[in-house]
Amino acid sequence: MSNNFDLADIQGNILRGYRRQFVRHLVLEVSDLSAARQFLQAGVDGGNADVPGITRGATWTVKPEYCFNIGITYEGLRALGTPAAHLKTFPTEFKQGMAARAMKIGDFGESAPENWPAPFDQPKRIHIIASIHTDDLTHLDQIEAQVAKAFHILGTRDGRSLPDGKVFFDYVDGISQPRFKHVIDPDQVGVDEPMDPLGTALLGYPTKQEGVLFRVPSPPELGFNGSFNAFRILSQDVVAFERYLDEAASFLMDHPKRDQLADPKHLDRIGKGLDMHGALREVVAAQLCGRWRNGVPYELSPDAQFPEKEVSLTNFDYTHSSRCPAGAHLRRGNPRGGPIVQRIANYTRRLVRRGMSYGPDFDPKAPDNAERGLLGSFIGANIGAQFEAVMCDWINVGLQDPNITGTNDPLLGANTPETSVFDMTLPDGDSIRLREIPRLINARGGAYTFLPSMTAIKYLAALTE
User: What cofactor requirement does the entry state (predicted)?
Assistant: First the structure.
């Protein structure tokens, strides 16, 4: 680890989650360079009556009233006056931007950038994404008004935490996150999974790959202690998801091995009051994800969502005989130390995931077509080696296991009903193939941003050209 590690130099929400009730993401354009630089300087200095202070990564015992952070696109760095010689030192994928890399990450068809609503239909105008996290809704409008004095606000996106930490597909989310030795996070005390090196999320530190450090953009005061974020607006088709669970359960009802999936004598271990069809729905949901909807890993409890003995939500691994399907969303995105073709990639593509849901509540008794989904941030030290590699190689191609190569992630993948398949596992080692999985999640906008350190924000504020 670098001897220069200083948590107070790092923006908040990278190494430690905020866990607030509300978020507003402001999509900004630099229209007045002088005003933008003055705003950054005041923000990094702690803020004032007209500028919110930028939240640092330092440990706090009492949460601040709100948290405010910024991510800057390549075009934003250019708009702030970053010299061309320094811009050249940033990674290609960041310079090209998310919209230009759409095919690489599965954003085609309905997810294609040409279908993204404003302001994401004009990616070169998106310079900064500023995020406000709070438990008090009044802070959102107050801080937006402050930001509007220095930037042109192209658009906003509001998110909120759903009850019980769930997303609209009704899964408990955000359970397994990277942990860092030098970061004290009370919410991760007792979490029993391996520590991640700082180079997983920050530029300038060792990574999980021995001797490999991701290139730090120049000069050091700009690149060091920075990070990258794939900011994503992902719509979740809850109606299609619940309908597919119904269809899959109906198919399984007639399968000769259905009782291996749900023991008819112990359906209450899957869910109280469920009949066989309802229990099969939950088994399908659990195998598609790799977790039961209450967060219990399928690997550790394949026969019960409510096991008789408590199991760890984070401390498990995969083997060749694992009951968790190789194609499950959880296992694809984080194969842990399990057997994969690219053995060198085990634990090397970890991402810090932050996100909140957007859209109205969903009532399964009165389904509607309102748009709802996730405002997600996928943070790491290298977009190409982490986010894009996961999305392309693991989520949408399945290169990590010959048994799933050529298939897509059943939840996040770019599926089409005509070609999609998913193999459910059975206790006897056999499998049951599900087909006709629709695309359940579509991109509705996004951007690659650089999350500068506090030192880097001062550097950008002090530029004179």
Answer: heme b
CA distances from 418 to 142, 261, 325, 415 (A): 49, 25, 21, 9
115 to 78, 285, 346: CA distances (angstroms):
26, 29, 35
Query: Concatenated DSSP letters for 377-418?
Result: EEEES-IIIIIIHIIIIIITT-TT-TTTTT---TTTS---TT
Residues 6 or more apart from 416 whose CB is under 8 A from it? 438, 439
* 165-197 confidence digits (pLDDT tens): 999 999 999 888 888 877 777 666 667 777 899
Could you give phi then psi for residue 445, rounded to 5 degrees? 140, 170
Return all residues near 83 (Cβ < 8 A) that are at least 6 apart: 465
DSSP code for 94: H
Residue with tokens 């109280």: 272
pLDDT per residue as tens digits for the range 56-107: 987 777 889 999 999 999 999 999 999 999 999 999 999 999 999 999 999 9
Q: What is the distance of C-alpha 392 from the center of its chain?
A: 15
Q: What is the DSSP string of 17-73?
A: ----SEEEEEEEE---HHHHHHHHHHHHTT--SSSPPPPBS---SS--SEEEEEEE-
Looking up tokens 């999305």 gives 391
User: Which residues contact residue 168 at a Cβ distance below 8 angstroms, ignoring those fewer than 6 apart?
Assistant: 162, 236, 238, 357, 359, 362, 372, 373, 374
CA separation, residue 202 to residues 60, 107, 217, 242, 382 (Å): 20, 26, 12, 38, 9
Taking the model in full, what pTM does it have? Answer: 0.96
Cα–Cα nearest to 449, from 77, 179, 142: 77
* DSSP assignment of 116-127: PPTTTT-GGG--
Write the CB contacts of 359 (distance below 8 Å, at least 6 apart in sequence). 168, 370, 371, 372, 373
Contact 127, 72 (CB under 8 A): yes
Instruction: Report residue 368 as tokens.
Output: 């509607």
Give the chain's length: 465
